[in-house]
Amino acid sequence: MPVSLSGFLTDPDSQQVLIVSRLPRTLAALLAGAALAVTGQIMQILARNRFVEPMTAGAGQSAALGILIASVVFPASAIWAKMGVSALTTLIGSAGLLLLIRPLPPTQPLLVPLVALVYGGVIGAVVTFFAYQGDMMQFLGSWLTGELSGVLQGRYELLWGAAAAAGVTWLIADRITVLSLGENAARGLGLNVALVSGLGLAAISVTTAMVVVTLGAIPFVGLVIPNIIARRMGDNLRRALPVAALSGAGLVLVGDMLGRTLRAPFEIPVASLVGIAGAVVFLALLYSEPRRG
Amino acid sequence: MIRLSGVSHFIGGAQILHDISLDLPKGGITALIGPNGAGKSTLLSLIARLTPLKQGEITVDTLKIGGCSDRDLARVLAIMAQSTHVSARLRVRELVGFGRYPWHRGRPGPADHALIEAALERFGLLPIADRFLDEISGGQRQRAFVAMAFAQDTDYLLLDEPLNNLDIAGARGLMRLLRDMADRDDKTILIVLHDINYAAAFADRIVALKNGRIAATGAPDQVISDTLLRDVFDTDAKISRIDGRPFVMV
């Protein structure tokens, strides 16, 4: 139903559409985009590698696994309970990745994203297997491919939590930046490395789980945005995180608007659009990455 | 004073350090030398609590390693690790600024900023303060890391092979800055060096390690000899004296 500016002022039905559907959808895009970009940046510091992001590196798949487990074992549980289980599996999945890539040599920066992709793929396969066994394949698509067409008032509010979790990281932005110097250097400066890493990982997990539960996985936002920002203004997170949040919000919003209009009245999921654009940008970034000594 | 008593260390069943006891008095530069695998870096990272101490005791002034908080130690002792590879894109000024972290815990005040600017100026980094670390030369990067350790404003400074990959101008420049920090600011500097000639030229004391044991300690004049090179480094290079200073003829 079209909504015009004049209609909004006079027509109660238009007002209803705006408040129940259009505004939530816009807010959902903004919140999810901001949260994803921020957690991508944190993940890259924790993994000490530019080319990983939670959605493709096992966190997104682990989140889907959590919802699946919750849906099978406690089918009647509330959405926030599913979210809780999902956040837990995401935490385990992300921590598992960090342990897995720890021994990889820093001189081979492309090994980490390769391992992460395989790791994410393996977890994804496990999810698919159990979804198939549990006859839940139709839900799987909605978790693994993020889109906003189902967003209505009352069905997106978890995303405020995702944005808040991402916002909390800004409070410890300096500490996370110190962590980017490496574990030894950070300890040498008196940083509580385990605590800060743990907080960062928790923020990533909560955010990823909330986005996957509400919208489904949206890849590449957490990869492309932090990479572009790091090139332009560096990795000092106190300065970079707010810009990342704004850019991520803009990217998902524009992606959703394009997805709605390109083939109207059909919709292209925002995950697909952002994924295609993100993959191209990612390749460009890989090839233009300056060799460092 | 840094005091080690009965420090032993094992890595995967192999004994890296054998019952090391050593007193490093306050002030001056102490060079830790020895062949590859002698345990120099392990010893340094034990003192800097980056490797957990399992056997023996280490104290830095009144702080006991393993018993004091990371934060308290970070205000007394700074460590510059061997690998200064940083994957994050940071500006020189930001890096040097992190040296203040143990003091301000993420909320730098005007005094911190003044100290950061002073460190940048002292190490000749002001012209490149706003460049990213991956845009400057290896020598400048190394200097930036020393400036960060300087900004940390600790009495003790530990450096693990800071001259790696530096050309002669970079290496001499860095050693002079360290000498200057020891002389003017009364810093106590413990440095792992590969090149004995640099140790002879800049250090006040030398501690030679071999197979995890202390082979010799003392002033460069007394320690560096044909015997040391033969027994510790397994080489028959000769020592000559130039301007009264021992010099290894390579």
Automatic annotation (TrEMBL), chain B:
* Membrane topology reported for the UniProt record: Peripheral membrane protein
Domain (ABC transporter): residue spans on this chain: 2-236
Annotated GO molecular function terms are:
ATP binding; ATP hydrolysis activity
A single GO BP term for this record reads: iron ion transport
* InterPro entries linked: AAA+_ATPase, ABC_transporter-like_ATP-bd, ABC_transporter-like_CS, P-loop_NTPase, Siderophore_ABC-ATPase
Family annotation (SUPFAM superfamilies) = P-loop containing nucleoside triphosphate hydrolases
Q: Name one Pfam family in it.
A: ABC_tran
Question: What is its subcellular localisation?
Answer: Cell membrane
GO CC, sorted alphabetically, is: plasma membrane
What keywords sit in the KW lines?
ATP-binding, Cell membrane, Ion transport, Iron, Iron transport, Membrane, Nucleotide-binding, Transport
Broad class of the protein's primary localization: membrane
Which family does the UniProt entry place this protein in? Belongs to the ABC transporter superfamily.
Q: Which PANTHER family match?
A: IRON(3+)-HYDROXAMATE IMPORT ATP-BINDING PROTEIN FHUC, PETROBACTIN IMPORT ATP-BINDING PROTEIN YCLP
Protein name stated in the entry: ATP-binding cassette domain-containing protein
